[in-house]
Write a structure and sequence with these properties.
It is globular, with a radius of gyration of 19 Å. It is an alpha/beta fold. Helix 2 packs antiparallel against helix 3 and helix 2 packs parallel to helix 7. It contains twelve helices and 14 strands. The chain has a seven-stranded mixed beta sheet, with helices on both faces. Strands 11-12-13 form a three-stranded antiparallel beta sheet, with no helix packed on it. A two-stranded antiparallel sheet has the order 5-14. Strand 8 and strand 9 form a beta hairpin.
């Protein structure tokens, strides 16, 4: 049985999609890609990749989101996850959305098995949660959200909650801590309430990243990666934060870089890792100051 994954991308990041597609191909995975800045394809794709374009999304919600965020490409991509899933669920029983900077290391078949019972799958961030130390990370659970929007599993019974998510993103897709918003992601905190049959994935090898390295400790054992000594690494999230915090000699980074180079021969390791934004350091300093002030 084919396992249908989907992602959303611009033309410039297709090489990440192709590396992702290769990582799922050995497990029977098919990758559906929504390309948001092109109307035709100009790159040769692996055989397990299919493309959808904005013109193919014909629902009212999709048209409203495209109209509102057409000049804000990040917000457009984030807000279209739900309607793209609905679009694909018209022809498939189960679909898993994943960000294009995710890479698979082991068989994810159990996730599709879980969708036989649960209409929705979510993966927790697993941020540090000790209120007595690293309180900035502890508070991130409430600022950024309990669940990572780089993963969302759905079956046909999830269409109602997916429509709700689309409407929420149409309302606002922005980082606004005063309003309790964080792009498309913070809305996921409500999903298990709206859909009580939602399953929170408890496999610690899923959606591993540098933000959860204290809870999900990855190491190489032979030629495989494991988590917490005996759990297989299923998929790792190589987003900007992870790339910035992985050491240059880390075998995970080396593995991913090699996979990307196959589809982008001019890519350098330096070019892969995004520069650290200065305002992020400033925000942390402000938070540290206010935290000490409030503790007095």
């Amino acid at each position: 049985m084919k396992k249908v994954f989907c992602t959303i991308s611009t033309q410039s990041h297709l090489y990440k999609c192709f590396a992702l597609a290769e990582s799922i191909s050995v497990y029977g995975g098919v990758l559906e890609v929504l390309l948001v800045d092109q109307t035709t394809l100009s790159s040769e794709a692996p055989g397990n990749v299919n493309f959808t374009f904005l013109k193919d999304l014909d629902s009212d919600l999709a048209r409203q989101i495209i109209k509102k965020y057409s000049r804000k490409m990040d917000r457009l991509r984030w807000s279209l996850k739900s309607v793209f899933l609905v679009h694909l669920l018209d022809k498939n029983d189960k679909v898993i959305y994943i960000d294009n900077d995710i890479h698979f290391f082991n068989d994810p078949c159990f996730l599709f098995d879980a969708l036989n019972v649960s209409p929705v799958l979510l993966t927790p961030h697993h941020y540090p949660r000790d209120p007595e130390s690293k309180q900035n990370w502890f508070e991130a659970n409430f600022r950024v959200g309990l669940y990572n929007a780089g993963f969302f599993g759905a079956n046909k019974a999830a269409k109602e909650v997916l429509a709700w998510w689309a409407k929420a993103c149409l309302y606002r897709c922005e980082k606004n801590y005063y309003r309790g918003l964080f792009d498309d992601q913070k809305y996921l905190d409500l999903v298990p309430i709206i859909e009580p049959k939602t399953k929170i994935v408890d496999h610690l090898g899923c959606n591993v990243a540098e933000w959860n390295k204290e809870i999900c400790k990855v190491k190489m054992q032979g030629d495989h990666f494991i988590v917490n000594e005996n759990i297989p690494l299923i998929f790792y999230h190589f987003n900007g934060f992870s790339l910035q915090n992985l050491a240059a000699n880390n075998p995970l980074l080396a593995y991913y870089y090699k996979a990307l180079k196959k589809y982008n021969s001019s890519l350098t390791l330096k070019g892969l890792i995004p520069a650290r934004a200065k305002f992020e350091k400033v925000k942390l300093l402000i938070w540290t100051f206010l935290n000490k002030l409030n503790a007095q």
